[in-house]
C-alpha cells in the first residue's frame, strides 16, 4: 500500500492485535483527542516515540 502522505513509502506489512470492544473505544477516543485521524496513526506514533526513547537511553548507557 502506498501512503497518501508520502507516496515514496510503501507499507506492505500488517500487524493485527485483538482487543476488546472497550479497549478499541478507548484507543479511538484517545487517538481523536490527540488529533490523530486513525488509531493506526496513533499507535505508530507511540511506537516511534518509545523507540526514540530507547535509542537515547542506549546511547547514554554506552557512554
Could you characterize the architecture of this molecule?
The protein is mainly α. It has one domain. Helix content is 59%, strand content 0%. The chain contains two helices and no strands. It has helices spanning 21-33, 39-62.
Shape: extended
Proportion of residues in helical segments: 55-70%
Name the quaternary structure. Answer: single chain
Number of helices: 2
Number of E-state strands: 0
User: How does the major sheet shape up?
Assistant: none
Rg, rounded, reads 15 Å
Arithmetic mean pLDDT? 80
String of helices and strands: HH
Beta-strand fraction estimate: under 5%
Amino-to-carboxy terminus distance: 40 Å
Detail the poorly predicted runs: none
Structural category is mainly alpha
Number of spatially distinct domains: 1
Provide a compact summary of the structure:
The chain is built from 2 helices and no strands.
Produce the secondary structure layout.
Blueprint: H1 21-33, H2 39-62
Index terms:
63 residues, mainly alpha, extended
Amino acid at each position: 500500500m502506498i501512503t497518501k502522505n508520502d507516496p515514496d513509502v510503501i507499507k506492505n506489512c500488517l500487524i493485527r492485535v485483538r482487543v476488546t470492544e472497550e479497549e478499541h473505544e478507548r484507543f479511538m477516543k484517545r487517538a481523536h483527542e490527540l488529533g490523530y485521524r486513525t488509531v493506526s496513526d496513533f499507535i505508530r506514533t507511540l511506537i516511534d516515540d518509545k523507540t526514540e526513547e530507547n535509542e537515547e537511553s542506549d546511547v547514554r548507557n554506552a557512554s
